[in-house]
């Protein structure tokens, strides 16, 4: 669906006289984790490792192919972890754990994760629609402040006015637990690193994230939730 639906949309857009199409992809087209001191940039090799990221990568290629034959302007944005209203998966799970005051066994995790507030992502997409230099590029985006998972939990707890009950469980034990429960991918997203370099995005588009991590978390978590 990602691939064929995107291809059809691009073709119909070009036929209808649409000038530019901005495609929201995923940083996962580059893989699942980064090495220490080696953030990804948009020119790094694509190494998608699951069905979702492979479909996004193939959809990107279909867009470029359609653009080449029609003159349609294409911009690709690859966000990392997005947080804000409506998020699911690990971010929503962390929110619930913090809100309920549960012990969180991530105190010994020493990693780095790039993330982007929904407000920042929307602001960048708007810039990609308007900026003359955006077409023909793939852009990586983040808030510009990479956090470890424990730092993220503490920041979320602060925004919610709750204590961060972090337990120092070794990451090796967490990975073993993930393997035993068939949740290795979920655990790895909590203990592994994934860092992007948004510098070229800032340079090309003259863009800076308008919202800091603290502001983004406060906007999302500042109101009481069940």
TrEMBL record:
Pfam families listed in its UniProt record: Epimerase
InterPro entries, alphabetized: Epimerase_deHydtase, Lipid_A_modif_metabolic_enz, NAD(P)-bd_dom_sf
Domain of life: Bacteria
Domain NAD-dependent epimerase/dehydratase, chain residue ranges per copy: 2-138
PANTHER family: BIFUNCTIONAL POLYMYXIN RESISTANCE PROTEIN ARNA, BLL5923 PROTEIN
The protein, known as: Nucleoside-diphosphate-sugar epimerase
Organism from which the protein derives: Hydrogenophaga palleronii
């Amino acid at each position: 669906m990602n691939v064929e639906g995107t291809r059809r949309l691009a073709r119909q857009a070009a036929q209808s006289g649409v000038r530019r199409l901005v495609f929201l992809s995923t940083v996962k087209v580059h893989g699942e984790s980064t090495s220490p001191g080696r953030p990804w940039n948009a020119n790094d090799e694509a190494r998608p490792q699951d069905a979702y990221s492979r479909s996004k990568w193939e959809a990107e290629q279909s867009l470029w192919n359609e653009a080449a034959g029609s003159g349609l302007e294409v911009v690709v944005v690859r966000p990392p972890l997005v947080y804000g209203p409506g998020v699911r998966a690990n971010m929503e799970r962390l929110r619930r754990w913090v809100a309920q005051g549960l012990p969180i066994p991530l105190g010994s995790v020493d990693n780095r994760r790039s993330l982007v507030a929904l407000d920042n992502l929307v602001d960048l997409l708007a810039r990609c629609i308007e900026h003359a230099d955006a077409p023909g590029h793939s852009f990586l985006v983040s808030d510009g402040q990479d956090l470890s998972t424990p730092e993220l939990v503490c920041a979320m707890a602060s925004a919610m006015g709750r204590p961060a009950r972090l337990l120092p469980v070794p990451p090796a034990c967490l990975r073993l637990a993930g393997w035993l429960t068939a949740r290795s991918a979920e655990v790895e997203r909590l203990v592994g690193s994934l860092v992007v370099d948004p510098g070229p995005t800032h340079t090309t588009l003259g863009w800076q994230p308008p919202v800091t991590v603290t502001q983004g978390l406060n906007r999302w978590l500042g109101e009481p939730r069940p």
